[in-house]
Design a protein that fits this description.
Order of helices and strands of chain A: HHEHEHEHEHHEHHHHHHHH
Order of helices and strands of chain B: HHEHEHEHEHHEHHHHHHHHH
Strand order of the largest sheet of chain A: 2-1-3-4
Strand content of chain B: 5-15%
Number of helices of chain B: 16
Helix content of chain B: 55-70%
Oligomer: heterodimer
Largest sheet of chain A: 4 strands, mixed
Radius of gyration of chain B: 29 Å
Radius of gyration of chain A: 33 Å
Strand order of the largest sheet of chain B: 2-1-3-4
Number of strands of chain A: 5
Number of domains of chain A: 2
Number of helices of chain A: 15
Shape of chain A: elongated
């Protein structure tokens, strides 16, 4: 056989496996759910959940014991701020607490009776803020608003007592050192912009691995000896099996990841700063790493449903390990090194930095390199486990052949005995 | 008496099944324990400390250096690098070396001393909300202190008393009471809901899985026969061992977080026990219900896993439910974790009376009773359905 013939044979076999795998994907309900429906629908649902981005108008109750013009000004200014809404007044703290316990408000502003007196006497006045700490975003809104209002009112008081002549003098007295805070990359501090890119990349990995695992489980259950690799001339080489199967998933996920990374953020006007060339350079190794990771795992499961028990619960820990919600600098070395086993760790980091933080490929070159290393490593593992599976198939085929041969021999012997007793 | 005996027999049979199939051990004991250790150890600090922060100090005077030293001394921030320009500091953020930086332009001290109101800026990366908002707080305090420092020096020179100075610099002080969690401990904030959420995920899936496996291996008829064809008895016996395993795991976790890690809680031990019981039986109830709706192993497990993963977002313990759109707000009622979180924060965390959380209590009881609607369907499935791979 010429080398050209061999190569064309190889491609034909791989293409055959590719076709078989696609057929299986579209025939299997479970795979269909995880490879098509979930990647299509889930990001939409998540985006809808976080669509409002920030929490406005957190309800608070005011206990105004001062009943003064100044205390009413404080309440008015808090109510006018975007983040807090004063929805009720209470007589005392117990009264206010009962509103907190009935989940009507998330915090209490208590203005003591000597508030106005103290301000007018030139002493430091105090406002008590009680926050329900079961929701950090609500706590932040209530606390930051009260801080801002107290500083604004404080500046007014400073101006009154310092006896300046010009506005410029007032400005310098209240703020000798001016400062400006600039939130970058996610100016509104929106929750959706922060979590969605990570979730998107995680959905790609999790559904891909689940899909591959379910398909492998089905293949095993359809097989007489519960082997992963069927007895077929086309399935004679490990590389062509892996390439053929990988091509099928890469094909489906080329479309899915384009939908997830390009369309979904734009549909909901999330931040999308990534250039397509950079995205391509990231997604190719990411999808390859995920596919081979899934193939390696798929050899470990015997019943198809087990893969769900193995993979689904990892979603949340993996999101944390990617450093999106808990800062990367504060994740211990043990957990970090475990996180390097999963493509999503690097995929999420690189995608967030390019998509949300406007980085270019050179900013995430380390992550992309790691993804290539992972892809190569998992390709190697997949080859080893598939080689193992293939040997098992041959063993089973051999056994079957032997058994058939023996059967035939016995039958022949019996025949001879019957004919020549 | 006979019923109890039957339940006992089926429970013994179930124990054997749990023992033989290793996946049960992994997803009922090993993975849950791993998750508990993971989240509690990951956020061990409570509040992220010493996050890397950069500085662009073009002024380079004692004043600017003292500002930087003070920033470094804060709990959350650690100054790790100096950059010659804003562009390079921004690039360092994009490469994830720092999370924020302080920019002190040239001539800041000169302008400060000659009362020309110089301006310093701080840039923080809000692509990560937690680190961004914590660093913002530190940097804001630093700038305010920088401002106050000047005023303080002037007033002291003029001979004002300490009280007069503080009253002038900060006429109104906010006295913050962080009720129940004065350390802003994120470990006790997140681990108390995330870990039960992961446990729920396992309980959903294992309940559907163990019912589906009966169908898959054609043991359904044998199982029903053991229970005298009484489906309720059969289900009670089947889920008794599982409930015991999950309950003991959850009690262990509660003991670990409240007894050993000393997470703050105002509610007493009965609140915690009630919550754990509702969590286990509500989740198993949901799992059985999902299987009853679609008596196919693969569909019911898919539903369970999708539901469980969604519940982390819809429970509303990170991004509050009041910030979501109205249809989504209504949707959250269908998720046991949402009711678990509300019940937890009202009764256990804040120590308010149970009556204030009655709706969520009733909802969780409803999840416990959900299988009632589908038991006959499950019986039918066990007797007549054939497993299709």
């Amino acid at each position: 056989m010429s080398i050209f013939h061999k190569i064309s044979n190889w491609f034909e076999d791989a293409a055959y496996i590719w076709r078989q795998e696609i057929k299986q994907v579209f025939r299997d309900e479970g795979v269909l759910i995880f490879c098509i429906i979930v990647p299509l629908a889930y990001p939409l649902l998540y985006s809808w959940i976080y669509n409002n981005e920030v929490v406005h108008e957190v309800p608070v109750v005011v206990v105004d014991q001062s009943h003064s013009q100044l205390s009413r000004q404080f309440v008015r200014m808090c109510d006018a701020s975007p983040d807090v809404k004063v929805i009720s007044y209470a007589e005392d703290l117990d009264d206010a607490q009962s509103l907190v316990s009935r989940q009507i408000v998330k915090g209490v502003y208590l203005i003591p009776s000597d508030f106005s007196t103290k301000v007018n006497r030139g002493e430091q006045a105090v406002i008590n803020v009680y926050c329900d700490m079961s929701l950090m975003l609500a706590y932040k809104a209530i606390y930051m608003t009260s801080m801002q209002v107290s500083q604004t009112m404080g500046a007014e008081i400073q101006k009154k007592v310092s006896g300046n002549y010009t506005d410029r003098e007032d400005a310098i007295t209240t703020r000798p050192l001016d400062f400006e805070d600039v939130p970058i990359f996610n100016q509104s501090g929106g929750y959706g912009n922060f979590i969605i890119p990570g979730v998107i990349m995680l959905i790609i990995q999790q559904t891909l691995v689940l899909g591959i695992g379910l398909a492998a489980g089905t293949a095993r259950e359809r097989n007489r000896y519960s082997d992963l690799v069927p007895i077929n001339r086309c399935y004679s080489g490990v590389y062509r099996i892996i390439c053929g199967k990988a091509l099928c998933y890469l094909m489906v996920y080329a479309v899915m990841s384009a939908w997830l990374t390009l369309v979904v953020p734009r549909l909901f006007s999330f931040i999308a700063l990534v250039h397509w060339q950079d995205l391509l350079a990231l997604m190719v190794p990411y999808l390859l790493a995920c596919t081979f990771f899934g193939m390696t795992l798929s050899c470990l499961v015997h019943y198809r449903e087990n893969v769900m028990l193995l993979i689904v619960f990892l979603s949340l820990p993996l999101l944390f390990l990617s450093g999106v919600s808990w800062p990367l600098s504060n994740i211990s070395g043990t957990w970090q090194s475990i996180s390097w086993l999963f493509p999503s760790t690097f995929g999420v980091r690189a995608f967030v930095r390019m998509n949300t933080m406007g980085g270019v490929l050179s900013d995430v070159v380390n992550e992309v390199r790691c993804l290539w290393v992972l892809a190569a490593a998992y390709f190697g593992f997949a080859c080893i486990v598939y080689g193992f599976e293939k040997r098992r198939t041959y063993l089973h085929a051999h056994e079957r052949l032997e058994m058939l041969r023996k059967k035939r021999e016995i039958r022949l012997q019996l025949k001879q005995k019957v004919e020549h007793p | 008496m006979k019923t109890l005996y039957l339940i006992w027999q089926i429970a013994k049979r179930e124990c054997k099944i749990l023992y033989v199939n290793r996946i049960y051990f992994f997803s009922m004991v090993f993975f849950p324990l791993l998750t508990m250790v993971f989240f509690t150890s990951l956020m061990d600090e409570g509040l992220p400390e010493d996050m890397p922060v950069g500085v662009v100090d073009l002024d380079n005077t004692t004043t600017s250096r003292s500002l930087i030293r003070r920033l470094d001394a804060f709990q959350s921030s650690k100054v790790v690098a100096h950059y010659p320009s804003v562009a390079e500091a921004r690039r360092a953020i994009q490469e994830n070396e720092i999370y924020a930086f302080l920019y002190i332009p040239k001539g800041t001290t000169d302008n400060l001393l000659s009362s020309r109101q110089p301006k310093i800026s701080y840039y923080y990366n809000m692509a990560s909300v937690l680190s961004g908002s914590l660093l913002m707080r530190d940097l804001k305090t630093i700038s305010t202190l920088g401002s106050a420092g000047v005023g303080q020096a002037t007033m002291r020179a003029k001979g004002y008393t300490q009280e007069q100075t503080t009253a002038f610099l900060q006429p109104i002080r906010i006295n913050l009471h962080q009720v129940g969690n004065p350390w802003t401990n994120y470990n006790s904030y997140l681990s108390t809901t995330i870990v039960p959420g992961v446990m729920m995920l396992f309980m959903f899936m294992i309940s559907a899985y163990s019912l589906g496996m009966e169908l898959k291996f054609g043991r359904g008829k044998e199982w029903l026969k053991m229970a005298d064809n009484r489906i309720v008895v059969a289900i009670l016996g089947k889920f008794l061992p599982q409930a015991v395993v999950f309950l003991s795991l959850i009690f262990f976790y509660e003991f670990y977080i409240y007894g050993i890690m000393h997470f703050p809680h105002q509610g007493d031990i009965w609140d915690i026990i009630l919550l754990s019981l509702l969590e286990v039986f509500g989740s198993i109830g949901f799992g059985i219900f999902a299987f009853g709706l679609m008596p196919s192993l693969r569909m019911s497990m898919s539903i369970c896993s999708l539901w469980a993963v969604l519940s982390f977002s819809l429970a509303g313990f990170t991004y509050p439910v009041m910030g979501m759109d109205a249809p989504i707000q209504a949707l959250t009622w269908l998720f046991p974790l949402r009711h678990y979180y509300m019940l937890y924060q009202i009764t256990v965390f804040n120590g308010f009376p149970l009556i204030d959380a009655w709706f969520h209590f009733v909802a969780l009881v409803g999840f416990v009773l959900l299988p009632w609607f589908v038991v006959m369907k499950i019986k039918n499935a066990m007797l007549h359905y054939v497993y299709i791979p």
